TrEMBL record:
It holds the Pfam family BMC. InterPro entries: BMC_dom, BMC_shell, CcmK-like_sf, CcmK/CsoS1_BMC. It comes from Brachyspira innocens. Residues 98-116, 130-148 have a biased composition (Basic and acidic residues). The lineage of its organism: Bacteria, Pseudomonadati, Spirochaetota, Spirochaetia, Brachyspirales. This is BMC domain-containing protein. Residues 149-175 have a biased composition (Low complexity). It comes from the Bacteria. Keywords: Bacterial microcompartment. Belongs to the bacterial microcompartments protein family. Its main location: other.
Length: 210
C-alpha cells in the first residue's frame, strides 16, 4: 500500500486540536501526531491512502478555521519510501518516548512501592524483635520469681523442722521432769507410810505396857 501524508499548520493549540479531531473523525487515517513548532505555530500530520488523507485534510482545515487561524495545509501522495520510513521512524520515536516515559513512571512507582514495602517489613520485624525481647524478659523475671519462691519455701520448711526439733526437746525435757516429780512423790509416799507404820507399832507397844 502506498501511503499519503496530510499536513495542517495552525496558529494556536486549540485550532490544531480541532483540526486533528475533525480529520480523525472524517476519514480512516493512521499515526496522527501534533508538534509545537514555536511562536504559537502547531503542525498536525497523519497518514493513510490518498483519498482518505485528502478528505481528512479538508475537514481538518474547515474545523480549524472555525476556532482559529490556519497557516497552511498540504497532501503529499505516494511518499517516497525513504521519506515515508523516516517519517514513520519519527512518529514511532515520539510514541516510544511517551511509552518510555510511562514505563519510567511505572518503574518509579514500583520502586517507591518496594521501598515502602521494605520499610513496612523492617517495622514489622523490629516490632517482632521487641515483642520477643519483652517475652524473654518476662520469662526471665518469672523464673527469678519462681526461684525466690522456692528459696522462701525451703527457708520456711527449714524453720518448721527446727521448730519441730525444739518442740521434741521440750517434750522430752518435760517428760524427764514429770518422771523426777513422780519419783519424788513416790519416795515421799513410801516415807510417810513407813513413819505411819512406826507410829502405829509404838502406840500398840505403849498400850500393851499399860
Amino acid at each position: 500500500m502506498e501511503y499519503a501524508l496530510g499536513m495542517i499548520e495552525t496558529h494556536g493549540h486549540t485550532a490544531a486540536v480541532e483540526a486533528l479531531d475533525a480529520a480523525s473523525k472524517a476519514s480512516n487515517i493512521i499515526f496522527p501526531s501534533m508538534v509545537h513548532v514555536g511562536s504559537g505555530r502547531v503542525a498536525v500530520s497523519f497518514f493513510g491512502d490518498v483519498s482518505a488523507v485528502k478528505v481528512a485534510v479538508d475537514c481538518g482545515v474547515a474545523a480549524a478555521e472555525r476556532v482559529g487561524k490556519v497557516l497552511g495545509s498540504n497532501v503529499i501522495a505516494r511518499l517516497d519510501k525513504q521519506v515515508l520510513n523516516s517519517l514513520f521512524e519519527y512518529v514511532s520515536s515520539d510514541d516510544n518516548g511517551d511509552s518510555n516515559k510511562e514505563k519510567s513512571d511505572s518503574e518509579k512507582k514500583e520502586t517507591d512501592k518496594n521501598k515502602q514495602l521494605e520499610s513496612n517489613t523492617e517495622i514489622i520485624n523490629e516490632n517482632a524483635d521487641n515483642a520477643e525481647k519483652e517475652n524473654k524478659e518476662s520469662e526471665e523475671k518469672e523464673t527469678d520469681e519462681n526461684k525466690q519462691s522456692e528459696s522462701n519455701t525451703e527457708i520456711i520448711n527449714e524453720n518448721i523442722d527446727n521448730n519441730s526439733s525444739d518442740s521434741n526437746v521440750v517434750i522430752n525435757n518435760t517428760s524427764l521432769f514429770d518422771e523426777d516429780v513422780n519419783k519424788k512423790i513416790d519416795n515421799e509416799t513410801a516415807s510417810n507410810e513407813t513413819v505411819s507404820k512406826k507410829k502405829t507399832r509404838k502406840k500398840k507397844k505403849n498400850n500393851n505396857n499399860q
